[in-house]
Every structure is written in C-alpha cells, then in structure tokens.
Protein 1
Amino acid sequence: MELSPRQIRLSAYKMVACQVIIAALVALIFYIINGEPAARSAFKGGLIAAIPNLVFALFAFWYLGWGTAEQAKTAFMRGHSLKILLTIGFFVLVMQQADIVAAAVLTGYILTLLAQWTAAIFFKL
C-alpha cells in the first residue's frame, strides 16, 4: 500500500510530537531526581532536537505530491540546512543561560534524537 503525501506529512508531524513527549518525560525524570533547573535544562535539550525537526518536516514535505521533483529537492535541502543552523543556534542560546545544567541539556537532546530513530519500531507511522 502506497502512502499518500498527506499521510507522509502526518507521519513526520507525529514523529515531532513523539519527540516533544519524550522531551517532557526526560524532563520529568530529571525533575524527580535532580530538581527544577535540571528538568528545565533537559526539556530545553529535547526542544533543541524537536523544533528543528519540525521546521525540516515543514520544508521537506511542502511540495510533496503537487510540486516538481526539483522543487521538492530544493525544499528538502533548505529544510536540512535550516535544521542544522537552528540546532547550532539553539545550543548557543541555551548554553549561554546562567542556570543551565549542561549534562541535562545534552541528555535531553540525545534521548529526543533517539526517539526519532526508534519511533518507527514502536509505532506504525
């Protein structure tokens, strides 16, 4: 069964929603174990992964199903470039904050990225 462009876009958005949920769960665990500053830091780390992925999904699948192959390729490349720039920018912004817990930021980021890689195993997206 071939997926429609709409189904593919929805799958990408579900993946981002899954990432935000994972980021919130990681933050909750940090809150229970280490307190509020670590929890906020972990959630920010998760958002550093999820927000650029949302932007990428919006760009990459914009022309899917109705645009030309060249438009789709260009949108994909722009989305990927913007994703990398946003990730770097968000890390710079977050790490400059005074009450940040760097280990929690990195843990939130890494676990949220792992959700992206493993979500297809657990969910039929």
Protein 2
Amino acid sequence: MLEWLVGKRRENASPKVPTTIDPEEVKELLDKGEKIVVLDVRQQHEYRSGHIKGAQHIPLMELNKRVHELRKDNTIITVCHSGRRSAQAARLLRAEGFTVRNMAGGMMRWRGRIVR
C-alpha cells in the first residue's frame, strides 16, 4: 500500500482527466444531480464533525482493503480536510483504474452544506 501512497504506481493514470477539481465545481455537479461519488477519506471523528451530504466514507488507511466497495462506472471525487490525504487516495484509485479527481483544498475550502 505504501507504494500507492507515495505515488509510484502511475501506469494507469489518464492524462485526459484533470487530477483536481475546485469545491465550487463539485457543488455544481452535485446540484445538477451528476453521477459522481464523493469519497471522504478522513478519520471517523472528522467525518462525524461534518461531511458533504451523500459522501461515502472510507478512511485513507482502510482504502486499500475496501477498494472493492467502489464502482468504476462513476467519477470519484476524493475529499479530506486539506486535500493532502485525498490526493494520496486519488493516486491509489487511479492506479486501480478508477476515474478520480481530488477536491482542491478539501473541506477547508468547501462552502456548500455539510451534514453531521
């Protein structure tokens, strides 16, 4: 798993899909009802303190074991507090063949509604 976290497995990365997405664009996609999966990779206590409505929760350190819970037919938007852990998650998922974008700035930049 560590090789994914440090980004050594990039052979499946698609140069056509941007690697990041702004929180405003994520909110627009959700408001339009686009088929995206918001994947929150923060720890349980962070997720409980407030998350994007409908977000799927898999902490980063469990992602390698739980990747089978995700489907490859929708774009996945990874989210954490600041964008660093979710960038690691995005690299891991991209290496597994998922279409994934990391939300820049994480929840610190999210201005949409959160649920607890």
